[in-house]
Amino acid sequence: MAGTIEQNLATQGITLHEPASPIANYVGFVRTGNLLFVSGQVCVNPEGKLIAKGKLGAGVSVEQGNAAARGCAINLLAQIKAALGDLDKVVRVVRLGGFVNSTPDFVDGPKVLNGASDLMVAAFGDKGRHARTTVGVASLPADAAVEVEGLFEVA
Predict the structure, then answer these.
(1) Interval 103-134: pLDDT, tens
(2) CA-CA distance, 68 to 59, in Å (whole number)?
(3) φ and ψ of 96, to 5 deg
(4) How would DSSP label each residue in 22-45?
(5) Which end of the chain is more exposed for a tag (fewer CB within 10 A), N or C?
(6) Cα 32–35–38 angle (5° rounding)?
């Protein structure tokens, strides 16, 4: 049976899928003590298709980037569930790190990353409020528009 957080997500039309396997020499998450570090998740849907491909500021809109960041956050949650078995074990979302595949003059990365931040608050309420870094980058794996990593305090 799904926990409270997962039921809350279901009412928002979000069902968690099996997380994607790492594509290189790393693991999807590492737990040390009461901290769970989740590797960067690119913006793929449950079928493995990119939600947004290409660069913000050159063909990918802020709205598409925001949806892609939301998809990354869903992938983070899927990794957390794989790590803990239950999202209710999340005590706090500590930090999100966002990478936006963008042109050098694109300055709306924070608006893009709000897609991930908004989902964390929608899922966890005040426990979902977090510190965040947003960085524009020259490229991401598979030409994904967005990648997000996370740090979570867990029980």
Answers:
(1) 999 999 999 999 999 999 999 999 999 999 99
(2) 14
(3) -115, 140
(4) PSSSS-SEEEETTEEEEEEEESB-
(5) N
(6) 95
Which domains does the chain show, CATH number per domain? 4-154 (3.30.1330.40)
d(CA 75, CA 154): 17
Separation of alpha carbons 52 and 65, rounded Å: 7
Tokens representing residue 77 in the block: 């949650």
25-63 confidence digits (pLDDT tens): 999 999 999 999 999 999 999 999 999 999 999 999 999
Helices 62-84 and 109-124, packing angle to 10 deg = 40
At residue 17, the 3 state secondary structure works out as coil
